[in-house]
Amino acid sequence: METETAGIAASGATGGCLCGAVRFVVAGPIGPAAYCHCSDCRRTTGSAFNVSIGVPVTSFALLSGTPKGFTATAESGNALTRHFCPDCGAPLYTSSPHHPDRIFVKAGAFDDHAVVAPAHQSWMRSRVAWAGIDPDLPAYDRDRPAESGA
Ligand SMILES: [Zn+2]
Ligand SMILES: [Zn+2]
């Protein structure tokens, strides 16, 4: 088992939580990502929408840490368990008995954002008006100068 995980780590895309306690690897090619605008994803991400990548559960391996899970029945009627780091709270992946062969890894948890290639967006009926970023908003390379340190 350890050798198998080591093999995956050598060839796969790695990721983890904010504090670094939880680390994972996904073997093989990373498939398309999807935006989800549902209200539960908005709550759990604390942002406008979720971006995740469905991967075969057999290609996913935890390298360290033990995520905590929270299960809720989604508007779709499916029970979804969202897994997150119990120390820093970072969302990591979602699983469901509705699709036991796949898990949905949070796109932002990957170390290399280049592996993320969104292909569609779901639950548009729940999308908030500020989900898209107005290109005319003032933009800064770092913190907004007047508010740095906030
Ligand atoms: Zn953490
Ligand atoms: Zn969602």
Low-pLDDT stretches? none
The CATH superfamily turns out to be glutathione-dependent formaldehyde- activating enzyme (gfa)
Structural class: mainly beta
Annotated CATH architecture: Alpha-Beta Complex
How do the strands of the widest beta sheet line up side by side?
6-7-8-9-4-3-10
SSE pattern, N- to C-terminal: HEEEHEEEEEEE
**Class, according to the CATH hierarchy?**
Alpha Beta
- Share of residues in strands: 25-35%
Cα separation of the termini: 46 Å
Named once each, the bound ligands are: zinc ion
Would you tell me the overall average pLDDT? 91
Number of helices: 2
Radius of gyration: 17 Å
Instruction: Quickly count the domains.
Output: 1
Task: Write structural notes for this entry.
This protein has helices spanning 2-11, 39-45; strands spanning 13-16, 23-26, 33-36, 50-56, 60-64, 68-73, 79-84, 91-95, 102-106, 118-122. It has 2 helices and 10 strands, in the order αβββαβββββββ. It has 150 residues and is mainly β. The model has no long low-confidence stretch (mean pLDDT 91). The protein has one domain (16-127): glutathione-dependent formaldehyde- activating enzyme (gfa). β8 (91-95) and β9 form a beta hairpin. The strands form 2 sheets. Strands 6-7-8-9-4-3-10 form a 7-stranded mixed beta sheet. It has a 3-stranded antiparallel beta sheet with strand order 1-2-5, with helices on one face. The chain is globular, with a radius of gyration of 17 Å. The structure holds zinc ion (ZN) (2 copies). One zinc ion (ZN) is lined by residues 36, 38, 40-41, 50, 123.
